[in-house]
Amino acid sequence: MAEDQVTLKIEGVDVTVPRGTTVLEAAKRAGILIPHYCYHPGLPVSGVCRMCLVTVEGAPGLQIACATDATDGQVVSVFDSAASDARQAVLEFLLINHPLDCPICDQAGECELQDYVFQEGRARTRYSDYPKRFSPVEDFGGDVLYVPNRCILCTRCIRFMDHVAEESVLNVSERGDRAFIGIHPDAVLDHPWAGNVIDLCPVGSLISKDFLHKAYAWQLDRTPGICTGCSQGCNITIETRDNSIARLRPRTNEDVNRYFMCDHGRFEYRWMNSGDRIEAPLVAGANGLVATDWSQAIARCAEIVKGVSGKAVALVSPRASCESLYLVHQLLKDFELLSACPVEVVEGEQPLPGVPNLALRSERAPNVEGAARLGHGAEYDKALEAVKDAALVFVLDDGYSQFGDDALSGSENLIYLGTSLPDAARNSSVVFPMSNAAEEDGTYVNRDGRVQRYMQAKTAPGMARPAWWITGALLSEIRGTDAPATAGEVFDRMAASESAFAGLSYETLGTQGAFANKASGAGVGCDS
Amino acid sequence: MGYPHEPHSKETVVLSRYFGDKSARSYDGWVERGGYKALKKTLDMDPAAVIDVVKESGLRGRGGAGFPTGVKWSFMPKEKNKPHYLCCNADESEPGTFKDREIMRWTPHAMIEGCAIAQHAIQAEVTYIYIRGEFTEELAIVEQALREAYSDGVLGDDAMGSGKKLDMYIHRGAGAYICGEETALMNSIEGKRGNPRIKPPFPAAFGVFGMPTTINNVETLAVVPHIINEGAEWHNSMCLSNPKSVGTKLFSVCGHVVKPGNYEVTMGFSLGELINDLAGGMREGRTLKACIPGGSSVPILNKEETENCILDYEGCIEQGTMLGSGGVIVFDDSADMVYQIMLLARFYAHESCAQCTQCREGTAWTTRILERMLAGKGKTEDLDLLLDLADQMTGKTICVLSDSCAAPVVSGIKKFRDEFEAYINGSREPVLVHG
Q1: Which residue from A272, B38, B152, B202 has the highest number of Cβ atoms inside 10 Å of its Cβ?
Q2: Omega before B4 cis (within 30°)?
C-alpha cells in the first residue's frame, strides 16, 4: 500500500492519497476546498484560471493545485497571505469585465465567482470608472445561450465539447481581454449531451433557455433522483420550486454517469409536472365512476380480487418502482398471470464518447431491467390481446402507456392505478390515484443491473398515493399481512424473497446504488 | 538600417561574417565558405559525443532564457521508442530583436546546418523550422536554401551519404507573438491555437505531437557548426567576463542611436561601448536616458546602469535586468518613458493569448491606466496600483508574457517616477486625447 500512496500535509491536515492524485483533489479528501474555476474532475486539466494557486513548501513561487501532483511529505498551505493575495488578485481581474448583474442572473446563488468573491475577494474594486467590455448575448443553439459579458474564459465548455462530447464546435476566439467563447460559424450546439456545458459553466455565462428566469438558486429544493429518460439510470438532482419541477441536473455517480446527463433526460420532467391528474379514488357506480375514500376503494377492490380466479392480466409501466412491481406480483400470484410492460424503443443510442458505457439508450424507460427481474414480461401486445379473456385486469400506469380507446374494453374486472384517467380506463371497477416518479420514494434497476434509489421531490396532488402503498394496502386487506409503511420496508421484503435483489438493503443502497449479490442472484438476469 | 556594415574593430564576427554577402546564401556559396563540413563530421559521430561537445562548449540558449544547450539536448530520451523532433524557433517577434532575421536572410545554410547537427544529436527524424509570419523575404530565402539542401543531398533519406534520414519542414507562423514561446509554438505546429502549455510535462518528454522534442533558437543552432569545426574549447574560451557566459552574441541595437543594427560581440562586452562605439552613440545634442538590453520583456536600465552593464547572462542580472534575446532598445533624453512603457503594455495586451486571468485582464488594465495617465487623467494612487497589478502578474501564469508586461512597468516606475508624476499632477501636457 505504501508504495502507491503518498501522505502530505495540507493546511495542517495530514492526508494520504494514491500517488498521482493532484494537490487539489488531495485537499478535497482533507476537507479543504481550494478555490478553482477551470479545473473540473470530469475534464482534462488546463491550468488557466490560476485561481487554485497554493504555497508548496520548497517550490519556487505559487503552484496551481490542479496540476501539481501530491508527493510524500509535501507541505501545502492554501490560506497563507501569498496564496490568498494571489487569489484575491485573480478575483479582482475576473471582475473588471464581469457585469454586476447578479440580481437578474440565473446563476446567482450557485455562482462560483459570487461565492469566492464573497469568501476572499476585495470589498471594493480598484477598476474605478473604466467601461466594462460589452458583447451581446448569443444563441449557441440547442438549449444554450451564451452571455459573453459574464464569461471568465475558464474553457470548461470547450474542453467538454472537445474531449468528452468529442464534437469540437467551441473555441476561444480573439486574444487578450477581447477573447470570448466562439462557435464554429456553421455549427450549433445541438450535440445530444451539449446541455452539460451549462452545468459546467462556473458562472452565468452559459445558461439554459428552458430554465431562463424560472427561479433563483435559493428558491429551489433539491432531491436526489434517477433519470426516467432511458435505461441508463443517470443519477440526477430534481430541483423543485413551489412543488413544481424547475429543472433536472446530473448528480455525480462515477460508476454510472460521472458528472453528466443527456439533453433528452434533462427535459424528462415535464410529464411529472402535468396538471391532468386523478386526485381521488374512484369506484364504479350506477352512473359511472364516483369519488370515494381510500378505505372504501381498497375494500371494493379486495372484494373484486377475492371474488375471481383464473386468468389475470397485469399491464404495468417501466417507470414504476421495483417496490410496486414486486407487490403487483405478490397481489396476483394466485392467478394464472400474464404480465407485461410496454417499452418505447428508439433506434440508435446517443453515446457520450468521453465516458465509457454512458449513452442515451434505445429503451426509453428507467426500470425495464427491474420489471424483467420481477417477472413482468415484454410481450405487451400479447398481454393486451389477453385482456378480453381475463378474469381480472390490473393496470399500473403513470401515463407511459398509450391506450387506444377500446384497448381495455371487454375486461369485466378492471383495476386501474394511474396518474391520469384515459378514456380506455373509464370502464374500470376501481381507479386508484397514484403518485408519479417525482412524488414517491422507490428504486429502479438500470440496464447494467445497478439498483438505485430515488426520493420524493414533490408532493402528489389530492389523495394520490405511491403505487407500492396502494398495492401494499390491497395485499393487507386480502391476506391480512401488515401493510408496509415505507418504500424501504417493501424493498427489504423484496430483497428477502426475490433472488434478484438478494443481499441488498434499502439503507445500504445509499445514493450511489449497488448490485445484487451475484451468487444468490444467479439466473435472474444479473449483470455479467 | 545599419546593414550591411563593415565590422567594427571591437566586434567578433562569427555568425555575422557573411552578413551582407549575397553569394553566401546559396548552397555553393556556403560550401565555398566551409559550409556543411561540420555536418559531414557530425554524421560520423555518435549522437552522445555531439551532445558532449556542445556541453563542453558552454553554449547557452540565445533565445532569451540562457539554458545550456547541450544539457537541454541531453534531456531527450536515450532509448528511442518514439519519433523525436527538433523545432527551430525562427518566430523572432520580441520587440527590439532582429538578429535571427539577419541569420536567415544572409546565411540560411548556417541555420539549416545547425538544425541538421542538432537533429542528429537528439536523434530526431524531423526538424520543424517555425518562421515568423511577417518574415516573407526570409521565408523565401530559407525555402530556397532548403530546396538546395535537398537537391544537393544534404538532407533527405541519405543525408550527405551517411545513410541517415534528415527531414526539415518549414511551418509559417500567422503573426502571434506568443507563438515564439516554445510550447505555444508546438501547439501552433500541431494546427492548434498558439497557447502555451502548462509544464510539466516538458518538451523533452511531451513536445510536438506529444513526442520528445527539443526546441532551439536560430542563433543557438547557427553557432553549432562553428563549435563542431573549431572545437568546444575555442567557443568556451571566448569570454570577456563571467566564464559561465561564453561565445559571441548578436545584439540588435535600435532606438535613438546613430547606427542601429546587429553587432556581434564576445560575451562580457560592455553595453556602454556597444551603444557608444559600435552603434555610434546618441544623436547630435542628445544624451542617453535609458536602455532595455534584452528585448522588450526585460526591465529597463537607467543611464548609469546602462553604462555599467556587462553584456552576459550574469552581468545583466547584476544590473537588475536580463540578457534576454539581445534586443537593445536605446532611449535618449527626448524619450517619454511613460509613453514608451504604455506602448509596451499595449503590445502585451494585444498579444496575450487570453488563457491566464492575470495576463488577459492585467495587461489590458495596465494599458488602460497608462493611457489614461497620458491623457492627463491619472490619479496619485495609480502608481501603487500599477505596481500591485505588476506584482500579481509576475510568476503566477503559465508563460512569462504577463511577467514581461510587468517588468518594464515596475522598472519604469522605479527609475522614472518623476515622469509618471508629472502626468498625474498636471505639470506635463497630456499627449493622448482618450484614455
Answers
A1: A272
A2: yes
Q: Could you state, in chain order, the average pLDDT of each consecutive group of 10 residues for chain B (435 residues)?
A: 77 95 96 97 97 98 94 95 97 96 97 98 97 96 98 96 96 96 97 96 96 98 98 97 96 96 97 97 97 96 97 96 96 97 97 97 97 96 97 97 97 97 96 83
Distance (Å, whole) CA A197 – CA A191: 11
Cis peptide before B201 (omega within 30 of 0): yes
Distance CA B310, CA B314 (A): 8
Whether A153 and B360 lie within 8 Å, measured CB to CB: yes
Residue of chain B whose alpha carbon sits nearest to that of A180: B354
- Strand ranges, E, within A168-317: 170-173, 180-183, 206-208, 221-226, 235-241, 244-250, 282-285, 288-291, 311-316
ipTM, 2 dp: 0.94
Helix (H) or strand (E) holding A146: strand A144-146
The pTM of the full predicted model, rounded to 2 decimals, is 0.94
Of B193, B363, B385, the CB nearest to A176: B363
Q: Cβ A93–B358 below 8 Å, yes or no?
A: yes
Please judge whether A86 and B176 are an interchain contact, meaning their C-beta atoms are less than 8 angstroms apart: no
Closest of B133, B54, B58 to residue B314, by C-alpha? B58
One-letter amino acid identity for B263?
Y
- For strands A244-250 and A282-285, give the pairing: unpaired
Angle formed at CA B58 by CA B55 and CA B63, multiple of 5 degrees: 100
B355 touches chain A (CB under 8 A): yes
Write the DSSP symbol of residue B345: H
Interface size between A and B, measured as CB pairs under 8 A:
88
Judged by CB atoms closer than 8 Å, whether chains meet at B357 and A46 is answered as: no
